Amino acid sequence: MAVATTCNPRDRKLVTLAGVLPDADALGVVPDVIGAWISGKECTFHYYQQYHHVLLHGWPGAIAVSAILTLFARQRWQVLGLCLLAFHLHLLCDLVGSRGPTAGDLWPICYSEPLFRHPIWFWKYQWRLDGWQNQLIFVTLFIASLWVAVRKGFSFAEILGSRLDEVFVKVLQKWGRQLGGRLGFSSTRKAPPAPEHSGVP
Questions:
Q1: Chain centroid to CA 164: how far?
Q2: What is the pLDDT of residue 198?
């Protein structure tokens, strides 16, 4: 989504982060594991269960995350809208496909948390987090993202650094040319111009 709707590396990174940061409220698993390791007791995942899908899985988190990211954007109004959209796309994906191993182990969306308890949304047909549906979606989007990287000249690796992204895309484009040659395809299309990379995220 960020690739299709933004025109510079900084804004692409910000929109991408907006779709990932809701799960920052799962970081409670870190003190859970460390505490269990130090005490020698069984890990109960107390903080993970207490705060995941609560602190950053509602409209207060969407507004806060989007507003903060927008401060660093070049096209601020556009990025604000895209960050809100990416954030809510994350929530939608959680609503339909983040169930635990049993049929009753549903993950609800407490949309007004942490300010208010209600509304609470859940979908009784929610599929497992490791279900075939999510695996199929992941493989499809991953292949599509590689194709976009070859065509556009930049990829999801851009969020980790412009140099890494440049090397990654060159390798993909080389493999694409080799595969095209083996399949009997030829292309006279010029290589895409080098993407505008920014040292500042």
A1: 19
A2: 53
